Amino acid sequence: MTVIPDASALPSWRKSSYSDNGGGGCIEVSDGRPGHVPVRDSKNPHGPALVFPADRWSAFVAAVKDGDLRA
């Protein structure tokens, strides 16, 4: 995982379908880096983004969908 200090320049940000529609817990992902998935807090578009390898992000999303991650 790497960090981009200001990810606002990356194209194609979209809100995650798993984000809270109440506005409090929203993340956005970008398709702007082939092989990688930048993720940021939608409330802070000029803030940092965490960048995950695409295969690891896919594994995380699959675990969420399967209910394998519980608080």
Characterise this structure:
By secondary structure, this protein is α+β, with helices and mostly antiparallel strands. It has one domain. Helix content is 18%, strand content 30%. Strands 1-5-4-3-2 form a 5-stranded antiparallel sheet. A hairpin with a 7-residue loop joins strand 4 and strand 5. The protein is globular, with a radius of gyration of 12 Å. It starts with a strand and ends in a 5-residue tail after the last helix. 10% of the residues are buried. The mean pLDDT is 82.
Supply database-style keywords:
single chain, 71 residues, alpha+beta, five-stranded antiparallel sheet, 1 helix, 18% helix, globular
Reconstruct the topology from this structure.
Layout: E1 2-4, E2 13-15, E3 27-30, E4 36-41, E5 49-53, H1 54-66
Antiparallel strand pairs: 1-5, 2-3, 3-4, 4-5
Could you provide a short overview of the structure?
InterPro entries: DUF397. The protein is an alpha+beta fold and 71 residues long. The protein has one domain (2-11, 25-66).
Global mean pLDDT: 82
The overall number of domains is: 1
Query: What sequence of helices (H) and strands (E) makes up the elements?
Result: EEEEEH
Structural class: alpha+beta
The largest sheet, given as strand count, sense and whether it forms a barrel, is: 5 strands, antiparallel
How much of the sequence lies in strands comes to: 25-35%
Helix content: 10-25%
Number of helices, where a helix is a run of at least 4 consecutive DSSP H or I residues: 1
The low-confidence parts are none
What's the end-to-end separation, in Å?
22 Å
Domain DUF397: 12-65
Region (Disordered): 1-21
Organism: Streptomyces xinghaiensis
Protein name: DUF397 domain-containing protein
